[in-house]
Structures are given as structure tokens and as C-alpha cells.
Amino acid sequence: MPELQWKGYAVHDTSKWTEFKVIDFTPKTFDEEDVDIKIDYCGICGSDLHTITGGWGQPMLPVIPGHEIVGKVVRVGSKVKEFKLGDRVGVGAQIWSCNKCANCKNDNENYCRHMVDTYNAKYPNGDIAYGGYSTAIRVSERYVFAIPEKLSSEQAAPMLCAGLTVFSPLVRNGAGPDKKVGVVGVGGLGHYAIQFAKALGAEVTVFSSSTGKKADAIEMGADKFVVTREPDALENMEMTLDLIICTADVSHGIPLTKLLQTLTVHGKLVMVALPDETLPDLRGASFISNGCSLSGSHIGSKKEAIQMLNLAVEKGVKSWVDVRPMSEVGECVKRVKENKVKYRHVLKADL
Question: What range does the domain containing 332 cover?
């Protein structure tokens, strides 16, 4: 195989977050359990916007974002057992963990205290992790996922973060037949939450601030559509939903207290979007009438990723994507920020 070129589109200033410059970079030191992947596609995730704008704090600059990656294996370490040269594989939002702690040993490696994010992160030895808006990536085998033959690369890429981020809390909280699931927001995360909840067999109610995306939500599988800005929209919904997945990347305007009241006894509202602003104020009494819970979820495990990809093939879950050349990344991240994308941008490598 030809020697890889390690180049990527990087942001150097969070105040100029649409200005990407191609840079050379050095990947992490190669270990024998590592896999080198030549990148073909990379999705644009909301996390990328939070990072390059400084919304979650100052990143390590220059930063090459991207953690929804699909490409071909071009090198494997001597300890790699699952993959061979030429395999089509994917990478999500995590590329390393300690593999020693209780979480790593129990399919909760996505909660390892020593985990390394796919970009804007450092390995224990100080090596810097660079992301998928690039030519290639080096990843520990555990965080490489085989892509099913019947799932195209551009369809699979955004599932590896956005899809997995909603799939994990759905399966961990029992979404399935005879369950009623609410989804707040119809966007990059929400359009997967609707489809995967339906694919798992649940009845799906979508909450949105307007009717603008109602037709899309119904096409994705929503059984009911509730406009939260309408007066008394939630008044007759007390104790009707078993689980709510909140995918809205905003804080203002979410009727959080009223949403909690729609949950059945010990029902749960899971936050998967991470807006820059704080959530609306809550009183302790908001949890009393039904014993409900407010919680979070962090990406998903490899076991869940494989299950998700196979279910997508089996049930026909589709990524609603707009594919553009990676060289157009500046314009693409702007369109994502302005909420002009239905519902995920995917970049095709062109370096």
C-alpha cells in the first residue's frame, strides 16, 4: 500500500471558525493494536460546531474536527484480529480507552474515565488526536466498526456519532414494542431518534416548536406530532410516555417541566443534545408526581454500534444527507450552524 499522507482541514481561530486551512499533521505513535484508515467520507456533527466556535471552551488549536468517519483499512498492527487490508470500516467519537477498568470490561467503554475523543484530545503519552476532516486516521481496533455491505458509506458515516448517540439510550432504556417514546426536536440527532425508536417497535411522539418539519417527521415514522409552542399542547399528555429523548440543541423554549410530566411512573427524559447554554430552571417538585428522572447519555459502545448498523439495514433506517466535497467544509459548517441542512452534511474526501 502507498504511504499515507496525513493532511487535514483545520481551524486555527475560533472567531474564524468557517476558515479552514489544509495542514500536515503527525498521527499518534503506532501501536500493534492500531488500524490506519484512509478516509472516504466524514459527517459534520453538532459537536464539531460546538468545538470550532469555542462553545464548549477553547479547543487545542489548530483543530481538525470530524468523528463520523468511513474509509478503507490500509494498515493493521500485529495484534489486530478483526480487520484486514481493504476492509470498509467506520469510526465514531471515541478512538481509545484504557481497556482495564470495570466500564471497559462491561461494554461501557464509552464511559471510561481515560477515554480519548476522536479529535481535540490527547493520548496518555501526549500525542494529539486529529479528526476526520482529513486524509486518514489511526485508531485502536476496539473503536473501528465494520460497515455492513448493504449500507453505503455516506449513509453509514453520520450514524457513527449521531445515530449511536440516540440509539444507545433507546436500547438501554427499553425502547421496543408496547413502549411509547417521545423525541424532542427533528434535526441531525432527532431524525435518527425517530427512525430508530420506530425500528425498535416503539410508538413515537415528536415534539417540535413549529409545524415546519411535521411532514418529515411523519415520513420518518412518527405516530404523533406535538407543537410545543401551541397553548396547552401538553396539557392532556400527563403520564403517557415511557421515555423521552431530547435532541434539541437549544435551551430556551424547551418546556422541560411539562415534558417531565408526560412521563409514566419512573419514566426518564434523556438529554443527548449539549447546548452551550444552561438548561431551564427546574424545581425539585417537578420529579415528584411520577417519580421521573432527568439523565444524560454519552455516545455508545461498540456492541451497540454494531447492533445499530445491522438494525439500520434490517429496518431501512435512512440518513437524510447532503454530500459535499470536503474542500467546501467552511460553507458546510456555516449551513449546519444556521440550521439549513436536512439533516446531516457528509463530506467526501478530496485531498
Answer: 7-161+319-348
